[in-house]
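User: quick one, fold this
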Amino acid sequence: MTVIGIGNDWRHDDGAGLEVARRTGGRQLDGEPIGLVSALDGADDVIIVDAVFSGAPPGTIHEFEAAVNRLPTALFGSSSTHALGVSEALEIARSLGRLPARVRVLGIEGARFDYGRGLSPEVESAVERCTRSI
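Assistant:
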């Protein structure tokens, strides 16, 4: 199993995916999710973790099976911190025949995405729960 965390440590809770990757020995993609396409090469079972903002309570963990269904663009589409979102990057991989057989995506609901370091307490708790489950 391959763990890939996506995010930005300099935008508070946007670093949640990166922190899960650090704690599990996974791969950290800091910046644009387009790097996800090449990061999937050779993997057959992948867990991708990224911060999301949907209006749900901070610390909520959204889980999706992306090899079966397209991710909801509202949660994983491009945003102000990414020119291309996780949803679009996975669809590019799917169209190129590079999507692994199993791709689970965990979206950790964030509270703060302004400039600065450190996770909010709710997101820190969600990171710990994700790490234990992986």
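User: anything notable?
Assistant: The first strand starts at residue 2 and ends at 7.
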